[in-house]
Amino acid sequence: MNWHDLTQKIADNQIITLYRHERPDCDAQGSQFGLKNWIEENFPGKQVLALGTGICTQGSWPASDTADDEMIRNSLAIVLDTANTERIDDRRALMAKEIIKIDHHPDHDPYGDARFVYPEAAATCQILTDWFSSETDLVLSEKTAKYLYSGLLTDTLCFRTSNTTAATLQAAAVLTQKGINIPEINRELFDSSLEEFRFETYVRSAAEIIDDKAAILVLHKEDLDAHHMPASEARNYIDQLGHIREIQVWAIFTETERDGRTVFDGSLRSKYAAVNEIAAEYNGGGHRNAAGVKNLTPAQLDEIIAKLKNAAVL
User: How far is the C-alpha of 81 from the C-alpha of 150, rounded, in Å?
Assistant: First the structure.
């Protein structure tokens, strides 16, 4: 199946349901709402539903839609930026009559009836930009471009990751040509409230710097409570540790109670090291320079921190 075939499938289906991964970031939200808007503008009259309960606190995103089981069973489902079925935010996607996977993570879980998986792409929003650009008879509007640019910008850490390529920048150029307001998007994504600024200051001061190569922060429940900060939102401050010239690997872990036990979830980042390979050892995943883990025991937390420290000095 090629992109034109997928466009034709959209034309042939009345109900299209769109899915993202749990604890969505801007690439998940940007690809989901970018695709929703593109379909609605080019195929008016269709039911296009962006589903999921997780919320991305970076930037401003529309509210998710709702759908009953019967609608999903009768829909074409497109799952975006989600490497494995366990991470789909609303696994009713698997009930759909046909499932399409679009992603830039390694395809370790090749689910779906058709897959558009390009690990060389820096973001799923880059993949969608290439798709929409190939459909020269259809509209790629400023609104769609803003969603896609937001995901592309954040997943590359402002074009600083090692998977930022000429193709990535070409995609960004296509989007900027649609009239998006780049300064406004940057302010929306990266400006902080005073409360957020204070927490950013805490994150920087509390992180453990190891051998001037790694920055690790473990936020316990009392730390989160003191700053009135939900664990999932706290991990979004990972970039505060990534703007240090000497630091090669950085991570934030948050403590939570789940199923009656204390566990830790983490966001892992790097400039060069394959942190997704470390995450995979603990049932996590992601791409080379950005990955996540969850449900770590205290012993596993110590293990993964040791591995991150080692990766930073290689």
Answer: 14
